[in-house]
Specification:
Elements lengths: L6 E2 L14 E6 L6 E7 L4 E8 L6 E3 L2 E3 L4 E6 L3 H11 L5 E2 H4 L12 H5 L8 E6 L2 E6 L1 H22 L21 H11 L4 H11 L13 H16 L15 H10 L12
Helix pairs in contact: 4-5, 4-6, 5-6
């Protein structure tokens, strides 16, 4: 017997919290602009991104049933301001606009549900200028505030990574044994890379300048899936082609001594000829 279920690992889940209070919605990814799944809980107050771990030939046994979908979903908290940045830049760059008019997207109607988490505790004022007129509160995009907010996030993340000593290289995942052998600013580059996962390429480059990372050391992590697939196809094709170049015969050099022996042996009979009848 199979059932259509999904396996989630969620921290601090209350026993009284029902499935209706956990709602999965589709929003625009702030870095790529593509549809991405997110989780809302606590009456739209808390926003989570959904990270999926999937392997082939994996299932779950749940009580007396089998869940053929063996994926593991790991919801992790995300600052909703990251998702608001593209809309602030687009809709209120030159004028102050109320938040419910900023977070509007015809392709992603659930974007309006970001109003609650973004307006909580005046967080939006960290990346924009707040204008009030009576009960109306409007916001105007402020890039200087945004860069300062992102820079402080990078610094705090760098300190947290250094404190926990949980650093690994992105390519070979070899943990450094001696902290003093690390390059100066290497941890900051790693923190910048994590924050840049939620930023456009343009903002990522500006952030690297704000935190003092040389541009040549900033890795472009915005390679599209299509580009990755093309490069993978090219790699496979290259491995499948086995072109060979004809090998020219190597002429052996004959020494003068060998030539003299060959000349002396010309016209003489071989030893085997003496044993023939």
């Amino acid at each position: 017997m199979t059932c259509n279920k999904h396996f989630f690992i969620l921290k601090d889940l209350a026993e009284s919290e029902s499935d209706d209070q956990l709602q999965i919605i589709t929003l625009r990814n702030p870095a790529t602009g593509k549809p991405t799944k997110y989780l809302l809980r606590n009456d739209d107050q808390d926003l989570y991104e959904l990270n999926c771990f999937s392997e082939s030939n994996r299932s779950w046994f749940i009580n007396e049933s089998v869940c053929s979908n063996g994926k593991i979903f790991l919801p992790t908290r995300i600052d909703p301001l990251f998702l608001a940045i593209p809309y602030l830049e687009k809709n209120c760059d030159g004028k102050a606009v109320p938040l419910d008019h900023i977070l509007v997207d015809d392709e992603f109607p659930h974007t309006s549900r970001l109003v609650k988490p973004c307006s909580r505790s005046g967080q939006l004022a960290l990346i924009s200028d707040e204008k009030r007129a009576g009960d109306i509160c409007a916001y105007k995009y402020n890039e200087d505030k945004l860069m300062d907010w992102l820079r402080r996030k990078c610094i705090r993340l760098e300190q947290a990574l250094g404190k926990e000593r949980k650093f690994s290289r992105s390519h070979n995942f070899i943990k450094e044994e001696k902290e003093n052998e690390r390059e100066v600013g290497e941890m900051l580059q790693y923190a910048h890379g994590i924050v840049s996962d939620y930023l456009s390429l343009e903002h990522s480059k500006k952030l690297s300048t704000a935190v003092g990372i040389p541009e040549e050391k900033v890795q472009n992590k915005r390679k599209s899936t299509a580009e990755l697939e093309v490069s993978q196809i090219k790699k496979i094709k290259k491995e499948e082609i086995h072109e060979t170049t004809p090998i020219k015969p190597v002429e052996k050099k004959v020494s003068a001594k060998s030539k003299a022996l060959a000349k002396a042996a010309s016209g003489t009979k071989s030893i085997a000829s003496f044993f023939k009848k």
